[in-house]
Amino acid sequence: MSLDASIAAELPAVEERSRSPIDRQARIADIDVIRGAALFGVLMCNLAFCFRTPLMAHGGPHWEAGPEHWVSTFEEIFLSDKAMTLFSMLFGAGLTIFYERASARSSGAMALLVRRLFFLCVFGFLHMFLFWNGDILIDYATAGLCALAFMNRRAWVLWVGIVLLTLFPVLGEFWPPLRDAANGLDVTKHYEEAIPIYGHASYVELVRYRFHEAAVYMWRAYIFYWPGTMRNMLVGMLVWRSGVLRAPLAHARALRWTAFLGIVTGLSYPLLRTIYYEMYHQRLIPRESVWRHVFGATSAPLLAAGYAAGIVLLLHGGGVAQRALSKLSPVGRMAFTNYLTQSMVFSTVFYGYGLGLIGQVGYIVPAIMGISFYALQCVVSTYWLRHFRFGPFEWVWRCLTYGRWQPMRLATAQS
């Protein structure tokens, strides 16, 4: 391949060193823990709003009261959008870490990143059509490629990009084509159409239907979620460049303020909206209001930042919290493998070629499934990383990125 040739030409003196795995001691343990926590939130939301019901229908039948209602309300307020926002922020930080370390070893860092994101996009297409249409990998790959243009820019340029991308949903109020694209998504029609197909169709029929969904429904979701994903990545890039994750104790005060303000301000809008709706059964802010878009676009990133700062403070505070959170590091290191495994398992559980539970259960059963399966992934990830350097899919992705086989087993397996 021409890309292989260009990379090889750029790295003649340091090829072996640049293509070797990152030393385990050089990893940023805090990022692994935060990623592991975010993965839990992503799993819980996917089970509640995507696997148990067709993705674009987002929830299906609504429970007005009772345990099902309160479980769904809790997930909507504290996890929905927040976990995915945090996950994409970490992805942006990860891009910057990869670039900095690859640049220190060679002059071909950007080419490696482009190659890495290209193969992530390939994984995404395979994942979306073969297993689950709720794929985020394509979104991450395309947003990440655009975020690379900001890699060496000054901080103020990233801030301008963050502000503009945050205000993107407001354009729907002033630009008719964008508003019409959103209004063209009939979730009720999609729910009625998709339930029998996902509940009873064979695997081949489902794969065929996903192409229809991509053409009719999914492109609308990418239009509205892609700017937010890129915005989150730029935030992650800024956070890493600030040094707070490299020296948390030196930024303890900033972390405390971020945790406090992020959680308080991030929860204010969804809590007030929910309480007002529960009491008066009407929207606090009309759906067509510009302020709804502004608050909706800012509450999730603020809360995600608050979560991340709080986790870092607990990790460096000692005690039970530190020991408990550190258990999430292995599942965070294998986030790519664990994410894809979740899709493979729960698409089989909910779709017709498996147990066919889609549309048959409320929120409590998926929540129990999610907690149990995540606990299992924590155990398996811990055991796996005692013997191997990477998760299985992380290893394949790395081999494709560098164009050669990477060592998999640890030189000395840990008992």
Automatic annotation (TrEMBL):
Chain ranges of the DUF418 domain: 240-403
Transmembrane regions listed in the UniProt entry: 37-57, 77-99, 111-130, 156-175, 223-242, 254-272, 292-315, 336-358, 364-385
Pfam family name, one: DUF418
This protein's UniProt keywords: Membrane, Transmembrane, Transmembrane helix
InterPro entries associated with the record: Bact_Transport_Assoc, DUF418
PANTHER family: INNER MEMBRANE PROTEIN
Record protein name field: DUF418 domain-containing protein
Classification lineage: Bacteria, Pseudomonadati, Myxococcota, Myxococcia, Myxococcales
